[in-house]
Known about the structure:
The protein has 352 residues and is α/β, with parallel strands linked by helices. The chain is built from ten helices and 16 strands. Strands 3-2-1-4-5-9-14 form a seven-stranded parallel beta sheet, sandwiched between helices. It has a three-stranded antiparallel beta sheet with strand order 7-6-8, with no helix packed on it. Strand 1 (3-7), helix 1 (12-23) and strand 2 form a beta-alpha-beta unit. The radius of gyration is 20 Å and the shape is globular. The model has no long low-confidence stretch (mean pLDDT 94).
Amino acid sequence: MSRILVTGGAGFIGSHVVEALLDCGHEVVVLDWLHPAAHARRGRPADLSAAAVWIEGDVRDGATVAAALDGVDHVCHQAAMVGLGTDILDIADYVAHNGLGTAVLLRELARACFGGRLVQASSMVVYGEGRYRCTEHGEVRPGAREVADLDAGRFEPPCPVCGAALTPQAIPESAPPDPRNVYAATKLQQEHLASAFSRETGAPVTNLRYHNVYGPRMPRDTPYAGVASIFVSSLTAGRPPQVFEDGGQLRDFVHVRDIARANVVALTSEEPVPGAINVCSGTPRSVGEMARALHAAGFDGVPPPQTTGAYRLGDVRHVFASADLARERLGFRAQEDFAAGMAEFARAPLRA
């Protein structure tokens, strides 16, 4: 069995990765700063297993990272600021936590002559808009949506050549990245930094591109949480979820336990699997469908979800994944059922 460092191991996804690794018999070291956007209080989390070594510290601090790496065989890098945040004023914080934090970790790994695997949390946001096909011009890549179109309720991106309607398709890892907000830019930067580290040191790096993750322990009532958490917060308070645009945005909703399993596989498979890999359910669903599934999970007294026509400028219309590479290279398939997972999530406690 291995000794594995999980940065951000007290967070939503990281805590599930820690549990999955411990269940497999590995030693786990958790390094987490407990960012106030995701944690209500300092100190070792009450729900963190006593079997895990706890280090409260910042991944941007080299001495702290160096101490955490002592005796470690592999690293699972989950520490990051996530979500679209509030506005462009968040830009320096995202770069500091995601870009600089990753750079410091990679520097300390290089100093330690690290010879294990690095598995890093990336995101589907690096793709920007997803993959589209025009009946006349084949595969095309639409540009950023125009404010005038969004204000008028025209949410579907047109063909950039002829202006015709497009058909969204599953996006593979080979698609060119096109980050369209600050968070996306920093996640792509993490991938590029880790790739440079791998070329310099020979250490294998796997970038797991998570799609829309949901499940127990998501933080609530914060602009840095995922849309599923925001919807559940509304339902629990007796308010109908406010669904942006017309609710037809297509995403791939994947349960956090599947995300944790993918990390375990990437860290412990017989041979490392370097490169970028989508982690997803393989089944696209609309944001409106997700909101209705949550509402149906026991919130009969709450008004149903409302589509508002509102939008976030940094958001994209459709992005959902091809699961082929994860299946072929990692041997990974998502196992959690969507309806059952949403019903569980609707009643699961969210983090303050």
